[in-house]
C-alpha cells in the first residue's frame, strides 16, 4: 500500500508540474504575442506591439498626446487607431496615425531632421545648370572656368571631396549629360560634341569631336539603360512588371531596391494580394487605381501602393530608402515613402528643383544665391541631420 501511495504521489506531482509548466508557458506565449492581464476584468486582453526607433536615438514617444517613454522600446497597445508623435529637442517632430492590430508587431523608424539646418558653401565661382547622374552619385555644372563634377558622397576625413574640373573653355550655353553608369559625360558646344571621362581633366585642345558617332553613343547608352531597367523590373510581381512596361513613363528604385517610385502614363488597376500579406505591414491608405500623370510608390515587400504626387512634383529618393525629397518652390520637404509625415527641412531662397541628397542622408546639396539677385548661384551643403 505504501508503495502504491508513493507511486500515486509521484504521478500527482508530475501531473501538477506539467500543468504548472503548461500554464506558465501559455502565459508567456500570451505576453509574447502582446496580451496583457487586466486586473479589473481579471483576464488577459489581446494587444498589439508597437516598436519605435528613431534616428537620432533618445527621442520621446507620445501616444494620443501622452508621453509613453523613449525610443528603442516596445509599447503594448490595445487594437485601435493612434496618433503617434516622436519628439526630440532641436528636431522636427515625426507624426503619423497608425492602426494597431492584435497579436501583430508594428515597427516604425522615425528619421528626425534638424529644426535649424546649416548652410556651407561648396562652390564660390558660380554653378550654372547643375545636372545629377541617374544614380545620384555625381553632380555636374558649369562656371566661367569650365565644366566641373562633384561626387555627392560623404568620404572619410582626409579624403578630398571637392569638385573636379573636367574640361575648360566653355560657354554657359553648352549642354552635357551623364552616361547611365555616370563614368562619362557627353558635352555639346558650338564647336562640336565630345565624350569625356567624368573622373579626369581633358583640356580643350585634347577634346576629340566624335561627330557622326553621337547617335551610336546615344544608342549604346539607351541599350545600357534598357538592360538596367529590365534587370530591376525582375524585382516586381509579374503582373506589375507588365503594367510598368506598358503604362509607366519613368521609374526609379529605392537605393535598397525594396520600393519603386513611378509615374503613370496610362490608367491601370493593380490587383490586390499580388504577394501574401505580411503581419505588421503598413496600415496607411493606399491607391491601387493608378491615373495618368500621378506619381506612386510601390512597396515590393508589402504589396502596397501609395500616391505621393503628380507630374509637377520633383521627387527624389533619400538614401534611407524610406523617405522622399520633394524639391518645391521656396522650400524643401522630406516625407515618408507613403506620402505622410511631410517635414519642411528648409524654407527660403533656393533654385528649385536643385536639391540633391548626399549618400549618407545627413546633408543635401542645393543651388542658391542666398536671395541676392545680383549674385551668381552657388552650390551649398545643407546639413539636415
TrEMBL record:
SUPFAM superfamilies with a match to the protein in the record: Tricorn protease N-terminal domain (SSF69304)
Top-rank taxon: Bacteria
Record-annotated membrane-spanning stretches: 12-32
Keywords tagged on the record: Membrane, Transmembrane, Transmembrane helix
Positions of the PEGA domain: 48-114
InterPro entries assigned: 6-blade_b-propeller_TolB-like (IPR011042), PEGA (IPR013229)
Name of the protein in its database record: PEGA domain-containing protein
High-level lineage: Bacteria, Candidatus Woeseibacteriota
Amino acid at each position: 500500500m505504501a508503495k502504491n501511495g508513493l507511486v500515486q504521489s509521484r504521478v500527482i506531482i508530475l501531473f501538477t508540474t506539467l500543468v504548472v509548466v503548461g500554464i506558465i508557458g501559455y502565459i508567456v506565449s500570451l505576453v509574447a504575442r502582446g496580451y496583457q492581464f487586466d486586473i479589473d476584468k481579471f483576464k488577459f486582453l489581446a494587444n498589439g506591439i508597437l516598436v519605435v526607433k528613431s534616428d537620432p536615438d533618445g527621442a520621446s514617444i507620445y501616444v494620443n498626446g501622452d508621453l509613453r517613454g523613449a525610443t528603442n522600446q516596445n509599447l503594448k497597445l490595445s487594437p485601435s487607431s493612434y496618433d503617434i508623435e516622436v519628439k526630440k529637442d532641436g528636431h522636427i517632430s515625426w507624426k503619423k496615425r497608425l492602426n494597431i492590430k492584435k497579436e501583430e508587431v508594428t515597427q516604425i523608424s522615425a528619421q528626425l531632421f534638424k529644426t535649424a539646418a546649416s548652410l556651407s558653401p561648396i562652390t564660390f565661382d558660380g554653378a550654372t545648370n547643375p545636372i545629377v547622374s541617374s544614380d545620384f552619385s555625381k553632380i555636374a555644372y558649369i562656371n566661367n572656368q569650365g565644366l566641373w563634377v562633384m561626387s555627392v558622397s560623404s568620404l572619410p576625413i582626409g579624403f578630398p571631396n571637392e569638385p573636379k574640373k573636367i574640361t575648360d573653355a566653355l560657354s554657359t550655353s553648352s549642354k552635357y549629360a551623364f552616361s547611365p553608369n555616370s563614368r562619362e559625360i557627353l558635352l555639346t558646344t558650338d564647336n562640336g560634341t565630345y565624350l569625356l571621362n567624368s573622373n579626369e581633366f581633358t583640356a580643350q585642345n585634347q577634346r576629340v569631336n566624335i561627330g557622326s558617332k553621337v547617335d551610336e553613343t546615344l544608342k549604346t547608352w539607351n541599350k545600357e539603360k534598357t538592360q538596367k531597367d529590365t534587370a530591376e523590373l525582375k524585382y516586381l510581381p509579374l503582373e506589375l512588371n507588365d503594367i510598368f512596361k506598358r503604362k509607366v513613363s519613368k521609374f526609379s528604385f529605392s537605393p535598397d531596391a525594396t520600393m519603386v517610385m513611378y509615374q503613370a502614363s496610362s490608367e491601370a488597376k493593380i490587383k490586390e494580394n499580388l504577394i501574401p500579406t505580411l503581419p505588421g505591414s503598413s496600415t496607411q491608405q493606399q491607391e491601387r487605381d493608378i491615373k495618368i500623370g500621378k506619381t506612386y510608390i510601390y512597396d515590393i515587400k508589402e504589396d502596397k501602393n501609395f500616391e505621393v504626387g503628380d507630374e509637377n512634383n520633383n521627387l527624389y529618393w533619400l538614401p534611407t530608402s524610406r523617405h522622399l525629397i520633394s524639391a518645391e518652390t521656396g522650400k524643401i520637404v522630406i516625407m515618408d515613402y507613403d506620402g505622410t509625415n511631410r517635414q519642411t527641412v528648409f524654407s527660403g531662397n533656393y533654385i528649385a528643383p536643385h536639391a540633391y541628397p548626399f549618400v549618407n542622408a545627413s546633408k543635401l546639396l542645393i543651388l542658391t544665391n542666398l536671395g541676392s539677385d545680383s549674385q551668381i548661384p552657388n552650390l551649398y551643403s545643407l546639413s539636415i541631420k
